[in-house]
Amino acid sequence: MTGTSEGEESAPEASEMGCTDTVEVAAGTPDQPQPYAELGLTAGEYRKVREVLGRRPTAAELALYSVMWSEHCSYKSSRVHLRKLAPAPAQSGALLAGIGSNAGVVDIGQGYAVTFKIESHNHPSFVEPHQGAATGVGGIVRDILAMGARPVAVMDALRFGPADAPDTGRVLPGVVSGISFYGNCLGLPNIGGELAFDPCYAGNPLVNALCVGVMRHGDLKAAVARGAGNKVILFGSRTGPDGIGGASVLASATFEEASAAKRPSVQVGDPFMEKLLVECCLELYAAGLVEGIQDLGAAGVACATTELAAGGSGGMRVSLDAVPLRDPSLGPAEILMSESQERMMAVAAPASVPAFLEICGKWDVEATVIGEVTGDGRLTMTWHGETVVDIPPGTAADGPVCRRPIARPADAGALAARDPAALPRPAGGAALRADLLAMLGSADLADKTWVTEQYDRYVGGNTVLAMPEDGGVLRIDEQTGLGIALATDGNGRFCRLDPYQGTQLALSEAYRNVAVTGARPVAVTNCLNLGSPEDPAVMWQLAEAVRGLADGCAALSIPVTGGNVSLYNQTGTTAIHPTPVIGVLGVLADVRRRVPSGFAADGADIMLLGRTRPEFGGSAWAHLLHGHLGGRPPEPDLDAERRLAGLIAAAAAAGLLCAAHDLSDGGLAVALAESCLSGGRGCRAELPGEAFTYLFAESAARAVAAPRPGLAGEFRSLCDEHGVPAERIGVTGGDSLDIGGCFSIPLAELSAAHTRTLPALFG
Amino acid sequence: MRIGVVTFPGSLDDQDAARAVRYAGARPVKLWHADRDLRGVDAVILPGGFSYGDYLRCGAIARFSPVMSELVPAARAGLPVLGICNGFQILCEAHLLPGALTRNAGLRFITRDVRLTVENTRTAWTRGYGAGQELTIPLKSGEGAYTADEATLDELEATGRVVVRYAAGAPNGAARGIAGICGETGGVVGLMPHPEHAIEALTGPSGDGLGFFASVAGAFAKAAS
Predict the structure, then answer these.
(1) Active site annotation includes B194
(2) What's the Cα-to-Cα distance from A79 to each of A68, A95, A564, rounded to whole Å?
(3) Is the confidence at residue A248, as pLDDT, over 60?
(4) pTM score
(5) How far apart are CA A591 and CA A588, in angstroms?
(6) Looking at chain B, which terminus has fewer C-beta neighbours within 10 angstroms, N or C?
(7) What is the CATH topology of the domain spanning B2-224?
(8) Which residues from A are below 8 Å from B9, CB to CB?
(9) ipTM value
(10) Contacts of A477 in chain B (CB under 8 A)
(11) Which of A365, A399, A433 lies at the terminal end of a domain, its last residue?
(12) Is residue A97 pLDDT above 60, yes or no?
């Protein structure tokens, strides 16, 4: 039993620092210089803090405002744009909680609600790949837990510099081992994600982690401190000097400035403690002991207290002396800023506190009452009996809004003019064959088993589809078969060419990846990875990406339920490609009707769905074979995506399909090769038009589908009914990928090309 | 018949083991690590996971938990016990089984559907299988390489206590391709792969793993009838 209550801590001693910077001291020393710039605040923001408080802030208040007003916590550069993502009523019918919550919550029927969110941990993962990625998983899992849900799966979208670059050899294995270490030990199946490489991510890897959780409708929790007299309980790991300043300094600045000095600020994760915290929280929820709850992530206690207090109507009084410390030398500012992992903060009625502490004791989770809800509308904190924080919490929680200058990138015209039509195309079957093998053997399109084998995809016993399928599928209800599907997608090249259309293409692909499993897409989460907001061209990319996503979701009639923005992903003046990573959630009425991507039966017709156009701008073919990026990305067609999704859902529900696979990077050629390899059998196909275009173009709203033998006619009628162009291009079977009139590749050769790349690179 | 599934702090596959017990027609009973009480169950499963965080050494702390102080003598007296993955590690730490599980040869966590050959069909947990039967079951572990001194390995082989072996080579460097062994009487079995994740084709690579649970459940059904 490790729970303690307020007042049991040792008596206040004289501060080690000689004199604590109290509110009283601050009021009497208005001219004392303060290190606001070092903490990441601008002179204007510092003036604003003084204005809000009517005096200079204390050291603790300065720390609190600096982390809360950092780009990372306040979204100050992106907020004016993100407002566009608020869903219209037509999109939000199934939404139980939306943007602004720790994570969005969607009604999936039968009394179940699903919450999911994707978040970045890019900068920490570059500095210390293993711990950076591990704590990225831990953070997003606590976000889901804070909504009242049981976390049930994770996914990760990873992007690195060139696969053969020496630093990628440091970063990638570390990131994968970190995700493996944390997620596996936590007992969350990893059911999918992405792995991509591009020189633009050298020095700025993207590590985006998604978590999904499930609850009953009535279990939804909110991050609010309500009810004067209710107790504020901090529970989980002790607070140590981890990641102090991480939120405002590490996540918001580029690496060149004093990188070495910032190194120790990456946090260290303990997945075992997180597992205990998950079980402990779920038991607390079930016992009805929690009035409000907030996870501790970036900006730790500062963020949790201000958000809980700002979410409620009253106020909050906190004794910082009561916070259990791993390092007793920490002062109030450090306690506020510490990013020690595996901590949660709850609000509980006084009468519930003994039962609360008992459940924590059962799970060996330390829990401490550190304060209570008040009615005065202020957030006050004491240290050694003196007041060191006294602020209106809303001012810290809301933060400033920057309307940063926006300008179309200077090279946009030149980039668009670099038409891929000018590239030399493979002439003849042998050249097409060689191009396909080269693409399949590239790190981008190669078999990802080296990575995914390090993740536990089975734990929980509900994983119906996982890597290398288009989307992960989980069973939610064992009796009815109700389930969900999830996919994440991003395409930095398309977005570099046109962030508006590129973001819609990422949305389309994730939507389609969910749809080809047989699921009905219902909601969207997003992680916008971009360069410095101080660059007007980056702000233009941000604005365009958000506009594209908002318009795209409106066209698909699904809501954005939440997300995350990661800025300052750049080295010097060179930003990464704008890389929105879009996660889509779908629902399957019965997971037994899910559709896998592999050709697992002989003699099934192969149908090409959708229209193929000679679209090569930003394509995998142009990138991998010619190092080319230019022209226009493929034209998104959201209406066609919707019809395609409706078709597959209907066909899956009717049991017509034995396989379906989305067409994206590398086009039809790569999709057919993947379906052959994952199903363990070949196919024979005839292309309905010009071979190069049909094989490698990346037109949107396309898929291949294999109706069950004997049911092709029914499927065709359904295609007509849904207005989806469909063409029979071949049949499954045999032991080679045979493209009539072009080439034939034995499966063994295809498999060798596909599987040897990542082991050769990473051991 | 009632089969206990122990939950340690950090156990992960406990619900999966309980589901497998249900699918096999028996009743799962939750056992808690801190209770010196087996609740009168007819058999016990120590599930996979990272008990107590697997700090120090896998299974090293779980061995000293209150529930184990009841389980060890009961197992020695004949109670059927199946340790899966972390459970196998705990059984070795508790000296109910010889040898130890060490870091995978490649030093990485491996999740892979492996083919196993059933070599001993006389144990409480494998009597429903045919001798030499091949099973496809997921392996998922970072410290799954079975190891023991040569004399112990020879004795295990000579006395038929290798219960299952990797059919196509051990992906983790396990000595002599050993994936699972049993104690002297065949009541206590340790397995590195996870049969509870192969109880139906919907959520696993096959339904091949159900036989472990059906074997013990069937045995009790027969005894009771």
Answers:
(1) yes
(2) 14, 21, 11
(3) no
(4) 0.94
(5) 6
(6) C
(7) Rossmann fold (3.40.50)
(8) 272, 275-276, 363-364
(9) 0.96
(10) none
(11) A399
(12) yes
